[in-house]
Description:
The complex is a heterodimer. By secondary structure, chain A is of the alpha+beta class.
Amino acid sequence: xxxxxxxxxxxxxxxxxxxxxxxxxxxxxxxxxxxxxxxxxxxxxxxxxxxxxxxxxxxxxxxxxxxxxxxxxxxxxxxxxxxxxxxxxxxxxxxxxxxxxxxxxxxxxxxxxxxxxxxxxxxxxxxxxxxxxxxxxxxxxxxxxxxxxxxxxxxxxxxxxxxxxxxxxxxxxxxxxxxxxxxxxxxxxxxxxxxxxxxxxxxxxxxxxxxxxxxxxxxxxxxxxxxxxxxxxxxxxxxxxxxxxxxxxxxxxxxxxxxxxxxxxxxxxxxxxxxxxxxxxxxxxxxxxxxxxxxxxxxxxxxxxxxxxxxxxxxxxxxxxxxxxxxxxxxxxxxxxxxxxxxxxxxxxxxxxxxxxxxxxxxxxxxxxxxxxxxxxxxxxxxxxxxxxxxxxxxxxxxxxxxxxxxxxxxxxxxxxxxxxxxxxxxxxxxxxxxxxxxxxxxxxxxxxxxxxxxxxxxxxxxxxxxxxxxxxxxxxxxxxxxxxxxxxxxxxx
Amino acid sequence: xxxxxxxxxxxxxxxxxxxxxxxxxxxxxxxxxxxxxxxxxxxxxxxxxxxxxxxxxxxxxxxxxxxxxxxxxxxxxxxxxxxxxxxxxxxxxxx
Lengths: 494, 95
């Protein structure tokens, strides 16, 4: 990994009152593992539910209960590691991270400290300006989620629900490789895409399935890392950007006033758009980790990993490269299409056996445009891939013109139905019959003798005639045929 | 390595164990006896020896991913000093 070798990029520096500053960002992401039951118990992981309904005696830490690991969670962690191009550790160890809080009934969280299941990896991130950055992954480990405390139910008491207690989390730690809030947001977006492709985390940030702790520090370009602050539990990609921008400015202001940064944990207040210090508990970081005596080391062999690798889906980077090669798409279009697996699948269903660029054009410009306007996602598109494919076919066969194709798309969007039949029944076919076009051309010429004189001196007026003929034929005339016939009748050279 | 009285109090606090002033010197002695024993163990050369995690050669048991437990919230909160609507109710932990 090239973590510390990343050269200073002047574009990414922040201007302070006394010169430029470089922002250094690293992230710790908590991703809830997609599984039916919890990491060490058979209770359901389903979101919500009645208070303490998805809780076993293990999750409630009743005396004498022992944890037994859920094999699917192990597989999900390995799959994720493979998706992050990371080293998979065939032996890893579960440790106890000790602290007291009412939503942690065991008095410790089962986590992995010195020997995580996944080691170093790499995520490639495409920036909007075309730059590609490499973000090093430090590690990924499995751990238990805590329960939930509600503080607003009673003036002097907190209410504790353990439904989330014991649900498997993957903590993914990056190297301090990010240099701007834009990069951090793009990284988080890419990571979310990878997790969703893999099916190892649903990436639902609103429900808290994916949340980030963001480490931010600033330094003068070329100098050693400054003191960092950790912003806890940021739960949207937009907030990640806001929190970093605010925090970098705050630290720069302190340093430029001759102050120093205290290493501390901060909270992002989304309403005020600022970070603020969490009251730091004394000894908060003395977790006294030690290997959990209830659990043996987690071991599997390379064949087990290889088998999981064989069944891994095509990941966004590979899919993007294939779309560019197979369908001749631009990097930008391919990137847009692979951002969500559902979108990529939809595009492929439209593009298969057809012209890829035309298919991409229709999916990205017409369909996405319309879906965005209505606030729908691709899975709820009223126009299916088959229907859109038929429209592209009709256009390619010359049965309808580009303009009519857009009308047809509108009809299919609002009324549904088979595009081919709609074209047939509503007489939307492009007129390629030169006799009919000639008749229309003749009548336009006959009705406008003055314009006929003008066009001879000014050939660019031809467009006006094309418009008139198209109007006379209800937009169904083949524009190329109209153009050709007009030119010959008006005596305009090619 | 040995611990002083301050460390004894700190460890007790981290473990949320109430320790009286009279108990501290006694506990300090016990902890230091344990640490002395660990010091002796440390003298053994274990270069190249794999850490032993189990007396018997055993592989960790794994479960299938199925929902087999839960659905008894009243049992979960049955021993709680205070509960309401199957929530645990505890003294407020934030201001």
